[in-house]
Design a protein that fits this description.
The protein is mainly alpha-helical. 82% of the residues lie in helices and 0% in strands. The protein is built from 5 helices and no strands. The longest helix is centred in the C-terminal third of the chain and has 38 residues. The protein starts with a helix and ends with a helix.
Amino acid sequence: MIFFIIIQLILVAIGATSAMTWFSYAMSENFRELYKEPVLLSFALKKTNISLSEKSQKTWGWLIHYIIGFLFVMGYHMIWVKNILPISPLSALILGVISGVIGILSWIVIFKMTDHQPPIDFKGYYIQLFFAHIIFAVTATALYSIILTILILLKAYVTV
């Protein structure tokens, strides 16, 4: 059973992180700014003086981005399983707002810890990041609900 939950959470995390990333890339293109989280993560890695090739830094930037998405989805899962919030559109919005604030605070810390000051419009970046996390949470909630429904239907079908 745990195996299926982990697979469910991985699938939800991949879908939600991808939706968020597509939004950030679209905003980046639209505003001609660097709002791409995986790219900013790879630049931050470079500033830590960890000895990695440029290709490895890019790979780790993407990997870290998706791992963080998985951790957010695990948090959502715990909230839903413990009935702290129901699986609903309103909960998705609440989780998105909370995640957006966490995301903004995390990036402020990352930029300060690494002394990385990319030439970006920080206010614009944080605004788009906030909305990107709402998209993440809405997508995660929808995918979680769909996969949960499919698993329930499959279990009902198999046991009948």
